[in-house]
Amino acid sequence: MGIQWTLSAGEIEKESFRIIFEETQNTPLAKLPPAEWKIARRLIHTTADLHIADTLVFSGNPIKAGIEALLSASPIFCDSKMIRSGLSMQKLQSINPDYSETHLLCSISDSDVIEKAQKENRTRALCSVEKNKDKLDNAIVLIGNAPLALAQICQYVLDGLVKPALIVGMPVGFVNVVESKELLTQCPVPYISLLGRRGGSALAVTTLHAIMENILK
Amino acid sequence: MGIQWTLSAGEIEKESFRIIFEETQNTPLAKLPPAEWKIARRLIHTTADLHIADTLVFSGNPIKAGIEALLSASPIFCDSKMIRSGLSMQKLQSINPDYSETHLLCSISDSDVIEKAQKENRTRALCSVEKNKDKLDNAIVLIGNAPLALAQICQYVLDGLVKPALIVGMPVGFVNVVESKELLTQCPVPYISLLGRRGGSALAVTTLHAIMENILK
């Protein structure tokens, strides 16, 4: 089959979802409830990896928590610029017109954060969490890159200092990643995570977009 | 092992690369030449998937072509905002101080592109390529999302209309993706691709960052 030039974005998405549904019918994913399935489906759609959702976990009714936070225009902490730019402001504003760029908390490239990280020989991600500590209550936290950012927020939660509305904990990599996700599983807050090493900015973004599907469609 | 809080970003990267090296020693990746290995290593680093580079292909001396294009501050076409925001302007300017935001060609959210796509019921990605057609000669093309963007650029190349310096063809998904990469393999331009369905914005970005390693270190 050659290139199908004339498909619209909506048609491509529909056909992609049909293929994903078909190819996961004999897997445990087929047994997920509808809202959880929407997330698994989008994770597969984003990576074209039929096994990406195999380690997906939910705790504390996180989809309901995410929906409520979105409806009340909760701020969204982003651990990377790729997350911030990947989020659809159009969708956010369709959910709540109050949403604006100022709701997207992303300090990873702020000059004070870069300076502090260099001076203290720590990661920028860690310093960017510290900078936003006072804004994390009732926030949606999206982590797709930096395990230390996730670990620091989990530590704040465990110490009773902050209480986010929802944590999407999907850092990726080989150092501190598995450990940061284990810390997340100890936290008494709603969370969605991909256990193990896998994750990524696109995965954190698509998880929130999948939650939005429950409101927008 | 618990969280290693005090590691710097450089130390985390070094340890990650050590683990990746160790875990790929008995695979065909261990036989890659140094510059190609740098790309495979970063693809694995970005996804934490040891198999992501299994379908990596190179054609037309693409790393050399990419290095030359970067050194002469060639424009960089990005098919998504996530690619544009993921690229390190600091690294680009370290390679050539002429680099600025105007070198990053990304029209996917331009109002005229959105309007045209809606009016003609086509994808925004396709319309954004058409808008930048005159700027693709000697450009670096990064595709991590939209197969139709890749297919359209390949068609321009095959029709002799444009000649990019390098194409990183890594769209992701279930529709038009495999086909667009097959079209790329027919193009007489330097390219790097991940055959099959896999790809992503982060993978296209990291490929160019891996090429930069040959200049910056």
From TrEMBL, chains A, B:
**Tree of life domain:** Bacteria
Keywords from the UniProt entry: Cobalamin biosynthesis, Isomerase
The Cobalamin biosynthesis precorrin-8X methylmutase CobH/CbiC domain extends over: 11-213
Q: Indicate whether Isomerase appears among the record's keywords.
A: yes
Q: Does the keyword Plastid apply?
A: no
Task: Extract the InterPro entries matched here.
Answer: Cbl_synth_CobH/CbiC, CobH/CbiC_sf
- Which protein, by its recorded name, is this? Precorrin-8X methylmutase
Which biological pathway?
Answer: Cofactor biosynthesis; adenosylcobalamin biosynthesis
